[in-house]
Automatic annotation (TrEMBL):
Species name: Parnassius apollo
Taxonomic lineage from the root: Eukaryota, Metazoa, Ecdysozoa, Arthropoda, Hexapoda
GO molecular function: ATP binding; ATP hydrolysis activity; ATP-dependent DNA damage sensor activity; mismatched DNA binding
Protein name: (apollo) hypothetical protein
Pfam families noted in UniProt: DNA_mis_repair, MutL_C
Xref: CDD domains: MutL_Trans (cd00782)
Residues of the DNA mismatch repair protein S5 domain: 30-147
Coiled coil stretches, renumbered: none
NCBIfam families reported in the protein's UniProt record: mutl
UniProt keyword list: DNA damage, DNA repair
Residue ranges occupied by any MutL C-terminal dimerisation domain in the UniProt entry: 246-384
Length: 427
C-alpha cells in the first residue's frame, strides 16, 4: 500500500496470487487493492508540530466486524498500534454501531527522534514520545473528513451522484455552489428552534413551521392564486437547495423530495436524530423537565447500578435527575425537556447499556446524548405535514454530518434523474 510506486507480484507455483501495477498515487494503489475505496473514500489530512497525517478512510456505511481493515503506517513502515486504532474508533463512534470497525489506511510522518521503533523484534510496534498529540491528530483528522464530506448515499440500482461532487459539475451556477459550500458549515444551536418544539408536540399541526410556505396569506376565495404561489415556492426550493422540495411522505416514515436533477428519499427518524444530537452537543447545559410522577426503575445488574452511581452528576448535567433508592432501584425525577412524553424506564435502561459498553475508558457524553437524540426524534410511523418535511430538509442542509445517522446508516439517499430514466428505458 505505502510503496505505491513499486510493482508487486506474488506467485504460488505457476499461479499468480497477486499482481499490482506501478501506481502514481497512494489513492490509486488503494483502489487497486480495495475496490470499495473508489466510490467511498474520504481523504484525511492533518498536521501539527511536525507530525503529518495523510491517508484515506471509507464512509461509515463501509464497516466490518473486526479491525483487520484498519491499516496504519509510521514513516513508511506498517505497524499495529492500539493507540491509533483507539483514536480511529473514537472518531467513528458517532457514525457506526458499537462493535463495528471502519476501513482506514493512515500514514503518520513523525520526526525520528519522537518515535521509538525498537520496541518489537519485528518492528511491528512503536512507542510515541507524545502519545496524546498523536492520538489527537488522528482523531481530529478523521472527524474533519467525516464532518465535511459525509454526504448522500446513492441507491445501488441507479446511477447517482452525491452532494460532495457538486463542484465538479460545469452546469452548476454560482448560487448553487454557495449552497453546496454552506451545506456542511457548523451553525449555531437550534435546540430552541420552533421546529424542535413542534416535533415534540405531534398533535399541534395547524401552525406552519417556517416562512417558506405562506399558507396564512392564501385566501379561501382565491384557491387558484394560492396554488400558483405554492408552485413558485416549490420551484425555488428545487432550484436553490441541495435537498430540494418535499412532495410527500410514504409509509409515514420516508420523505420524498425533488431536487435539481435528482430524487431524494429521507428517513425522517434517522435525519431528525442526527439534528437533535448535533444540537445537544453544542449545548453547555440541557434544560430539564420535572416528571409529575417520579419513575422508579429497577436495575438488577450490579455493574449497571455502579455506573449510575459513578455517573450521577454527569447525568444531571445532561438533563436527568436521578436518585439512588436502594441497591437495585433508582428514581427518575427529571428528564431532558426535549424528550417530551417517553417510556422513562426504557430510556434509563438504554442509557445504562451504553454506559456499560464504554466503561470508564471514554467520556460518557456522546453515548448518552446519542441515546437522548434517538428517543427525542421523530419516530417512524409519525405522520408529518408538508411544512414540517421541508423544514426538516432545511435544517439538514444547515447541520454537519446530516447525511449520516448516529448508528452508521444514511439519513437519505438520492437517485439521479438520468438513472431513473435509464430504468424506464427513456434514454
Amino acid at each position: 500500500m505505502i510503496n505505491y510506486s513499486v510493482r508487486f507480484t506474488l506467485g504460488s507455483g505457476n499461479k499468480k496470487v497477486l499482481k499490482y501495477a506501478k501506481q502514481t498515487s497512494f489513492f490509486n494503489r488503494l483502489c487497486e487493492i480495495e475496490e470499495e475505496c473508489q466510490s467511498n473514500s474520504l481523504e484525511v489530512k492533518e498536521e501539527e508540530e511536525g507530525i503529518k497525517l495523510t491517508g484515506h478512510i471509507c464512509k461509515p456505511t463501509v464497516n466490518h466486524g473486526n479491525s483487520t481493515q484498519i491499516y496504519t503506517f509510521v514513516n513508511g513502515r506498517p505497524i499495529k498500534d492500539n493507540l491509533l486504532i483507539g483514536a480511529i474508533r473514537y472518531a467513528y463512534q458517532d457514525f457506526i454501531l458499537s462493535g463495528r470497525y471502519p476501513f482506514a489506511v493512515l500514514h503518520l510522518e513523525i520526526p525520528y527522534d519522537q518515535v521509538d521503533v525498537n520496541v518489537h523484534p519485528n518492528k511491528s510496534e512503536v512507542r510515541f514520545q507524545n502519545k496524546r498529540l498523536v492520538y489527537e491528530i488522528v482523531r481530529r483528522g478523521i472527524i474533519k473528513a467525516l464532518s465535511t464530506r459525509v454526504g448522500t448515499f446513492a441507491a445501488s440500482d441507479v446511477e447517482s451522484q452525491s452532494i460532495e461532487e457538486f463542484d465538479s459539475q460545469e452546469q452548476i451556477d454560482s448560487k448553487e455552489k454557495k449552497n453546496q459550500k454552506e451545506f456542511y458549515e457548523k451553525r449555531p444551536s437550534i435546540l430552541e428552534n420552533r421546529l424542535m418544539k413542534e416535533f415534540n408536540a405531534p398533535d399541534e399541526r395547524k401552525q406552519s413551521l417556517s416562512g417558506s410556505f405562506k399558507y396564512e396569506g392564501i385566501e379561501k376565495s382565491t384557491p387558484q392564486k394560492g396554488v400558483i404561489v405554492l408552485e413558485r415556492e416549490q420551484i425555488d426550493l428545487v432550484e436553490d437547495h441541495p435537498l430540494g422540495c418535499a412532495h410527500c411522505q410514504v409509509y409515514n416514515t420516508y420523505i420524498i423530495a425533488e431536487a435539481k436533477g435528482k430524487l431524494i428519499i429521507v428517513d425522517q427518524h434517522a435525519a431528525h436524530e442526527r439534528l437533535i444530537y448535533e444540537c445537544l452537543k453544542q449545548k453547555s447545559s440541557i434544560k430539564r423537565q420535572k416528571l409529575l410522577l417520579p419513575e422508579t426503575v429497577e436495575i438488577k445488574n450490579q455493574a449497571g447500578m455502579e455506573m449510575v452511581e459513578m455517573c450521577k452528576d454527569k447525568l444531571f448535567e445532561m438533563g436527568f435527575g436521578v436518585e439512588i433508592q436502594s441497591e437495585d432501584k433508582v428514581t427518575v425525577k427529571e428528564i431532558p425537556a426535549i424528550l417530551g412524553t417517553i417510556n422513562v424506564r426504557e430510556m434509563v435502561m438504554n442509557i445504562i447499556d451504553r454506559l456499560m459498553e464504554i466503561g470508564d475508558n471514554l467520556p460518557i457524553e456522546e453515548k448518552v446524548l446519542a441515546t437522548i437524540a434517538c428517543h427525542g426524534s421523530i419516530r417512524a410511523g409519525r405522520k408529518m405535514m408538508l411544512e414540517e418535511m421541508n423544514e426538516l430538509l432545511r435544517r439538514m442542509e444547515e447541520t454537519k454530518c446530516a447525511g449520516q445517522s448516529n448508528h452508521g446508516r444514511p439519513t437519505y439517499i438520492e437517485m439521479k434523474l438520468s438513472g431513473i430514466e435509464k430504468l424506464f428505458e427513456r434514454r
